[in-house]
Amino acid sequence: MEGLEAIFRWLHVLAGIVWIGHLYFFNWVNGPFQAKIDGPTKKIVNPELMPRALYWFRWGAAYTWITGVLLLGLVYYMGQQALATGADWSAGAMIMIAVTFLGVFLYDALWKSGLANNLRGAVVVSFLLVAIIVALFVHFAHFSYRGTLVHTAALFGTIMAFNVWFRIWPAQQKIIRATKNGETADANVVKLAGSRSRHNTYMSVPLLWGMIGQHTTYFAGGNLGIPSDYFWIFLLIIIIVGWHIVFQVYKKAGKVPGF
Questions:
Q1: What angle in degrees, to the nearest 10, is found between the helix axes of 145-163 and 231-253?
Q2: Phi/psi at 83 (nearest 5 deg)?
Q3: In a domain, 258, yes or no
Q4: Which terminus of the chain, N or C, has fewer Cβ atoms within 10 Å?
Q5: Is 83 helix (H, G, I), strand (E, B) or coil?
Q6: Rounded to 5 degrees, what are φ and ψ at 79?
Q7: For residues 97 and 93, what is the distance between their CA atoms, to the nearest angstrom?
Q8: CB-side neighbour CA atoms (13 Å) of 201
Q9: How many CB atoms lie within 10 A of CB 184?
Q10: Long-range contacts made by residues 94-102, C-beta under 8 angstroms, separation at least 24?
């Protein structure tokens, strides 16, 4: 099992680099670049560039998610790392595992609802839902520190992979075809692709914390004045900080000049 774990980790990181690297390219490089080129140039460049980039983007997402699920099963379920010391598998744990992988449908419904027109309100509601889920990971499922972090990351990763395959990729196909034909893409399709890509970018930073932070217990309580029973509040702070970092990078990306 240890050998399989090493192989899955290697493949997970490799696929993740391909996926997230392209995500950042689309949002922080290609987005500002597209705003600088005219329609005829887009008609030449985008039908050649975008399908190639989106190929690696979507398959990177798929293999990152698949290897992540395999690691979750191998290390946290079979390896008994998911639960806090002294806790047993319970209905609460099973329910929260289901929430980890099915919460994507609540997210999708929220951002397809009328609330999505109020960006600030939708973000606040989204954060409150994440906070409730994280608290339930700890107090209902009785996940360990590592288990809480990795399931939070898995929740974000599942939403992100869903966005890639079922929202961004279908929308981008329509946009690319319209561009190739010299037509104006449907504004709602463009909005969908752009918003879900931005959502993924915002989720990616706390996701990375969840994946990396679970390899140390420094923030599990007992350090920096963090009580061990409330480490999950620090995780929520990290999520907010991560979102702010992404916000600032978006601002910077729009100001990076070409030659």
A1: 40
A2: -95, 155
A3: no
A4: C
A5: strand
A6: -85, 0
A7: 6
A8: 24
A9: 11
A10: 95/140, 95/141, 96/133, 96/136, 96/137, 96/140, 96/141, 96/143, 96/151, 97/141, 97/151, 99/133, 99/136, 99/155, 100/151, 100/154, 100/155, 100/158, 101/154, 101/158
Number of domain units in the chain? 1
Count H helices and E strands in the chain, helices first: 9, 0
Is residue 234 situated within a structural domain? yes
pLDDT tens sequence for the chain (259 residues): 789 999 999 999 999 999 999 999 999 999 999 999 999 999 999 999 999 999 999 999 999 999 999 999 999 999 989 999 999 999 999 999 999 999 999 999 999 999 999 999 999 999 999 999 999 999 999 999 999 999 999 999 999 999 999 999 999 999 999 999 999 999 999 999 999 999 999 999 999 999 998 888 899 888 888 888 889 999 999 999 999 999 999 999 999 999 8
Residues spanned by the domain of 9: 2-253
